[in-house]
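Example 5.3 — tRNA (guanine-N(1)-)-methyltransferase
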Amino acid sequence: MSFAATILTLYPDMFPGPLGHSLAGRALGTGVWTLDTLQIRDFAEDRHRSVDDTPAGGGAGMVMKADVLARAVDAALAARPDCPVLAMTPRGAPLTQDRVRTLAAGPGVTLLCGRFEGMDERLFEARPVEPVSIGDYVLSGGEMAALTLLDACIRLLPGVMGAASSGVEESFESGLLEYPQYTRPVTWEGRTIPEVLRSGDHAKIAAWRAQRAADDTRLRRPDLWERYRSARDRPPSGAQ
Ligand code: SAM
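Solution (predicted C-alpha cells):
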C-alpha cells in the first residue's frame, strides 16, 4: 500500500519540488508514496478569500484563521481519516528519527504548512492536529519543513533505499551520531583513511566505529550523549 502524503498549503506548486527527484522522485513515480495538495485558500468563505487576519492583542504580521484551517483539516481528515495531521510550527515538539520511523511505518501523513506569524492557537484545541518543529530556527513558511519531514519518511519506505541496511546504521538510529565515513583515494591532501578501515578485520572495524560514534556524539552533541547514557545505564524495568 502507498504512503499517502497530503499537504495543506497556500503554495501547492512548491510540491513535490525536490521530492520529485532522485530516490523520492522515483518512489513517487512507482507509487511507493502518493502526493495530494489542498489549497488552504479554497476553504476561505468570504468574498476576498481571506486566510489571515491581524493578531489579537496587536503586533506585527498576520495570523492564519482558525476557521479556514479547520475546514482544510476537516477535508483532509474526511479523505484520509487514518493519517495523522501534523502542523509545521517552531512551537511544536522537535521532530526526531524515532517519530519519523513511526510515521513512515503508518499509512501516511497530512501536513499543515503555516505562513505569516503562524496559526490561530484554537485550531490545536479544536482539531486533532499535532504541532511539530524541524528545529530551533524560524523559516518563512511551513512548506520547507513539510518537505523535510516527508523526505525523512520517504527514504525509509520499503524499496526506496538501495541497500536494505542503509537505514539502520545511521545517525540517531542507535541514539548516537553515525561514525565518520571515508572513501578512496586512500590518501588525500596528506590525510590517510584510518588504517583499521583498510585492515579487512570486521570485528576491529566494528569496534572502531562504535568508539568513534560514542566519542563524536559526546563532543558534538552532549544533549544526545546524556540521553543515550542515561538510557544505557538505566536498570531494566522490574530490576531491584
Ligand atoms: N511567529 C512564529 C513563531 O515565532 O513561532 C513563526 C512563524 S514562521 C515565520 C511561518 C511558518 O513557517 C510557521 O507557521 C510554520 O508553518 C513555518 N515554520 C517556521 N519555522 C519552522 C520550524 N522550525 N519548524 C516547522 N515549521 C516552521
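Remark. The pocket of S-adenosylmethionine is lined by residues 88-91, 113-115, 117-118, 133-135, 137-142, 145 (CB under 6 Å).
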